[in-house]
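Batch job 17 of 40 flagged for manual review because the log was empty.
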Amino acid sequence: MYETEIISIPILPLNMVNAHLIRSEAGCILVDAGIPGSEHKIARVLHRHGLTFRDIKLIVVTHAHTDHAGSAARLRELSGAPILGHKDDADFYSRKERMTYCATGWVGKLFFKTPVPHEPYEGFVPDIMMTNGETVNLLNFGVDGVVRHTGGHTPGSIAVELSSQDALVGDLLASGILIGGIALTGRAIRPPFEDDPHKVARELERLVQQGAKRFYMGHGGPLGPDEVMRHARHLARIAPNPCSAGLCAHGSH
């Protein structure tokens, strides 16, 4: 079994947007690519750890929002690493379809009115396209773990589950006030947008029940299993989102 280290890469201050590098003696996997132009910040973190873009063996994009997929095409060009994504977000990745957003509260509604969620990025087609029910084994990329489809946040959301009991879950949850490190960093919250809170709850409960001890996310974190389970139980009691009825807002290309 390969021992792994999780290196957080701050894309914006106060953990407001994070990417993560999974490092083992056999290879590195980048989880999420940040907003457009994030390659420079990622390069600095790599250099700090004695690495270069060429040490990245795989780029996992957890979903198609611009703060996770924005630099994926450029990072593929720099590293030569394939991109892994799920087919249910494929038309968003390629920019064929406009991204959908279902606000979870007033923060999401205000955030949607700003330019940030709608920032365009270079479209791409994942080199490894997951389908529903498929699991991707990461041993071929030097990491002991798998990628599974979760949905919930976006149709094609995916998560990385490692044998080290680390889970990198994208935007299945967030932490802190205003998604990041301003305050209450150890408390789980909903991200500004979320398609199906009940599906998210089921996936978070599954991860805890299967032994995940540390949850890394795109906004805030990391969190432990007790707080994640508390949040999952809260989500399970929320009324279904209008997104399930096709009432999500659409962003621009």
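Reviewer: the log was empty due to a logging misconfiguration, but the result itself is present. The domain at 4-250 is CATH 3.60.15.10 (Metallo-beta-lactamase; Chain A). Unflagging and moving on to job 18.
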